[in-house]
Amino acid sequence: MAYSYTLFETAIGRCGLAWGSRGILGVQLPEKTHEATRTRLLRHCPAAEESERPPKNILRAIEEIQSLMRGEKKSLRTISLDMSRVAPFNARVYETTRAIAPGQTRTYGEIARAIGDASAARAVGQALGRNPFAIVVPCHRVVGANARLVGFSANGGIATKLRMLMIEGWRAEEQSLFEELA
User: Fold this and answer.
1) What are the residues facing 4 on neighbouring strands?
2) CA–CA distance from 93 to each of 18, 79, 106, 117 (Å)?
3) Do 71 and 167 form a contact (C-beta atoms < 8 A)?
4) Residue 148 DSSP symbol
5) What are the pLDDT digits (tens) for 63-73?
6) Per-residue pLDDT, 176
């Protein structure tokens, strides 16, 4: 099976996307350099070769991601993901997380309850920390209890999470969330 990848510009920087015949294998948020973005993306699919002419379905996925990061209300739910390398628990977490609309948030506990295990909030956080489909599986929309911005492993950490949420039109209900980042 042939695997490919490409890097593309968004409002938050150069992202990457790797895919195979069964769908997208990985999405990478911007790193400090384009080469670091490429390197981190290829952890999801080391055998992927760079494509200068992605197929139409991948070009549509890129356009949808770019639109979302420009502030358009795009759900990205139609983008096909290859979850064959993902543990079943994580796949349930990712599918549930994909249902969160742009500009909205849910807590780790709410995701745990939605997948039928109210005691699994920490496991949900661990699954999202290993999310190979950032943006498409919008882990940036999952927050801690009381809407605290916690747990974002992308370059820039919580500041990147906040930036993505603000692009989507999210408004913190408590000013203290912003003060914590200062």
Assistant:
1) 19, 49
2) 21, 17, 12, 11
3) yes
4) -
5) 999 999 999 99
6) 44
Name the pTM for this structure.
0.89
Q: Are residues 96 and 170 in the same domain?
A: yes
What is the number of structural domains in the chain? Answer: 2
Q: Which two tokens stand for residue 34?
A: 């384009």
How long is the chain?
Answer: 182
Q: Residue 35 maps to which CATH number? A: 3.30.160
Catalytic residue (choose from 137, 139, 143, 167): 139
63 and 14 within one domain: yes
**Residues with Cβ < 8 Å from 161, sequence gap 6 or more?**
140, 149, 152, 154
Task: Determine the structural domain holding residue 29 and report its residue range.
Answer: 4-69
Judge whether 139 counts as a catalytic residue: yes
The residue type found at 90 is N
